[in-house]
Backbone:
């Protein structure tokens, strides 16, 4: 029984770490612009697909990964510069719809530039399962968990210790005040989109050896990441991580101990319940509207 | 007055001449993009290829063929719209299409009402059972897949199995059929797990099956990426028992995705997958090899059984038109229904008023993955 529990736990943590990375991307852009970027899942797809593509073209894996992350970051910058920026001053809903448009465009481009097939990326370090107390773990899962941890640490350093990170935080608290103290909000927005896209790509690359990648994987991963961000509290960094891991664990345990047929439904019911009793998520800021 | 009559007669003659030269219009709606693109893409390519080939050979009934094809993206609603357009605006002579069961079933009422011969390329048993006057299909049904697998299990003395299936239409339909026919083959399904089509990890479900006492084999009903992930997870968990897949994964892509984990996996499939490995005296060998070579030479990609369904559908239709000697819809329908001994990539087709698919288990081959390739289980 405990071996079974451990297996569910490991499965939940691995997929939860990926949800956390995607959720972080949502939160960063939300903080900087109040926009929920529905193209976040497509950055995940671009990361995975581009790495596979360059790998097939003979690039060594590290170079392919670096190039894929860079490409996604550039796409993120382009999205901000050419779609979000020209519409500045428009309502948040308009901006969100723009990101939905961008996501459809990116998916379409992916089918043209790459193809409509499902691809597998070779695991970074072999496929021999590791035995832990009767449960098994793929080496790739360790990569997922390890890199997620490093990314979270790097982000907390970035937001806590660097001027640019603090500028981002300041913008999220009060855009006007940030502008008044000389922060270039336009630059902050660019950084936010680039950073989120790069994060998404990292998630897409890490998960590709386990779950495969295709032009449309971004839809599902994007939605789950969004759900994780909401669960943890939209805009909260630690919330995104907690939300992601929680969602992964709920799914795995739900499928394991209740019914695998209702796995997704269960996850969303819990999210609804959380939002009902804690509208700002597990770790979100309490927001109050001044009347 | 006389002049006028002559003029009218000349016009009429010209019109008949044009009529005789007008191409035979073959309509198609396929899931060329979208989640079922792995079905629709090879189907579309196959239809294009064979319409070209037939035209190069002089066409059919002295007329050229013209393919009118729409991309339904696997969406039943779109399929309906396009089928309507094919019938009313394009005025096609026959429809070959419907990559998925959902699309096909959405179109059935339209073709029945319009009296349009329709050959579907989708799998589920509901398409031709009960028999619908104008609807035919080429692939083996999901029920036949279950039966073929259970037959193989009997041969290996497997009696208690775990079933894991996806949430798609095909997956659910096959799960239902397997549950229905299992007892006939004295196979007991002791675990029944599900996953969503977009799921990325099935270790949880497989762990449950693994821990069910007495399980001797696992059967996975599904298509797309799910079965490949199931296969990988199966290996990861070190499950030491046979794994069976459905004909839904019958393409090389499955082996590529699942990698080493696919070794030893068995599935029922049409002979076309192992065309060149068929014994020389196999009746299906010529058609399978010629389709494989033509497709691979033209598109530089490996064939799947799905493109083969389109090949069979088109060829059954063409043969029927030749036998009917016209493109009259009622005559063509009757000719399709009387197809006998047609050698296709899927098997030998013998249709009848009570069977609009015409396939039986004899040509549904059991394959095993060995050294990254399909081999025929004897």
Residues:
């Amino acid at each position: 029984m405990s071996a079974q529990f451990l297996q569910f736990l490991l499965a939940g943590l691995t997929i939860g770490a990926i949800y956390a990375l995607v959720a972080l991307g949502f939160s960063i852009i939300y903080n900087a612009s109040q926009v929920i970027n529905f193209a976040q899942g497509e950055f995940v797809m671009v990361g995975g697909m581009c790495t596979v593509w360059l790998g097939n073209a003979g690039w060594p894996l590290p170079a392919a990964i670096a190039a894929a992350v860079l490409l996604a970051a550039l796409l993120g910058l382009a999205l901000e510069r050419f779609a979000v920026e020209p519409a500045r001053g428009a309502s948040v809903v308009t901006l969100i719809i723009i990101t939905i448009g961008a996501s459809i465009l990116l998916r379409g481009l992916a089918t043209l530039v790459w193809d409509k097939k499902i691809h597998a990326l070779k695991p970074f370090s072999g496929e021999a399962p590791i035995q832990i107390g009767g449960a098994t773990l793929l080496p790739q899962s360790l990569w997922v968990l390890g890199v997620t941890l490093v990314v979270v640490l790097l982000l907390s350093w970035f937001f806590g210790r660097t001027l640019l990170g603090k500028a981002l935080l300041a913008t999220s608290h009060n855009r006007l005040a940030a502008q008044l103290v000389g922060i270039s909000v336009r630059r902050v927005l660019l950084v936010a989109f680039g950073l989120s896209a790069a994060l998404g790509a990292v998630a897409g690359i890490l998960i590709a050896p386990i779950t495969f990648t295709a032009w449309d994987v971004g839809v599902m991963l994007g939605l789950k990441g969004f759900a994780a961000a909401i669960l943890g509290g939209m805009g909260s960094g630690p919330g995104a991580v907690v939300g992601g891991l929680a969602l992964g664990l709920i799914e795995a345990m739900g499928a394991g101990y209740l019914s695998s047929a209702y796995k997704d439904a269960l996850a969303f019911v819990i999210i609804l319940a959380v939002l009902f009793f804690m509208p700002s998520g597990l770790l979100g800021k309490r927001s109050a509207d001044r009347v | 007055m006389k002049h006028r009559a002559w003029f009218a007669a000349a016009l009429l003659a010209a019109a008949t001449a044009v009529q005789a030269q007008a191409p035979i219009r073959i309509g198609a709606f396929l899931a060329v993009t979208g989640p079922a693109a792995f079905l629709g893409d090879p189907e579309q390519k196959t239809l294009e290829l064979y319409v070209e080939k037939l035209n190069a050979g002089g066409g059919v009934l002295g007329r050229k063929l013209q393919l009118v094809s729409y991309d339904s993206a696997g969406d039943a609603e779109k399929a309906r719209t396009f089928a309507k357009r094919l019938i009313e605006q394009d005025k096609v002579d026959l429809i070959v299409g419907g990559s998925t069961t959902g699309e096909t079933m959405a179109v059935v009422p339209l073709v029945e009402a319009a009296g349009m011969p329709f050959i579907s390329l989708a799998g589920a048993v509901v398409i031709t059972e009960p028999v619908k006057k104008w609807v035919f299909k080429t692939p083996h049904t999901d029920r036949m897949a279950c039966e073929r697998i259970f037959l193989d299990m009997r041969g290996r003395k497997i009696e208690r199995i775990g079933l894991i299936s996806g949430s798609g239409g095909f997956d659910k339909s096959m799960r239902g059929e397997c549950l229905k026919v299992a007892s006939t083959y004295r196979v007991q399904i002791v675990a029944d797990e599900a996953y969503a089509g977009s799921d990325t990890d099935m270790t949880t479900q497989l762990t449950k099956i693994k821990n069910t006492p007495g399980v001797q084999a696992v059967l996975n009903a599904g298509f797309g990426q799910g079965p490949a992930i199931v296969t990988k997870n199966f290996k990861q968990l070190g499950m030491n028992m046979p794994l069976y897949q459905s004909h839904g994964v019958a393409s090389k892509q499955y082996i590529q995705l699942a990698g080493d984990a696919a070794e030893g996996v068995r599935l029922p499939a049409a002979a076309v997958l192992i065309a060149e490995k068929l014994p020389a005296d196999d009746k299906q060998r010529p058609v399978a090899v010629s389709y494989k070579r033509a497709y691979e030479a033209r598109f530089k990609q490996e064939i799947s059984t799905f493109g083969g369904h389109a090949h069979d559908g088109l060829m059954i239709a063409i043969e029927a038109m030749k036998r009917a000697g016209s493109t009259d819809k009622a005559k063509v329908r009757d000719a399709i229904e009387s197809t006998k001994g047609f050698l296709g990539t899927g098997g030998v087709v013998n249709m009848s008023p009570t069977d609009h698919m015409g396939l039986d288990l004899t040509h549904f081959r059991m394959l095993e993955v060995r050294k990254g390739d399909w081999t025929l289980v004897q």
In short: Residues 24-218 of chain A form one domain. Chain A is about 75% helix and 0% strand. Residues 2-33 of chain A form the longest helix (32 residues). Residues 27 and 69 of chain A are 19 Å apart (CA to CA).
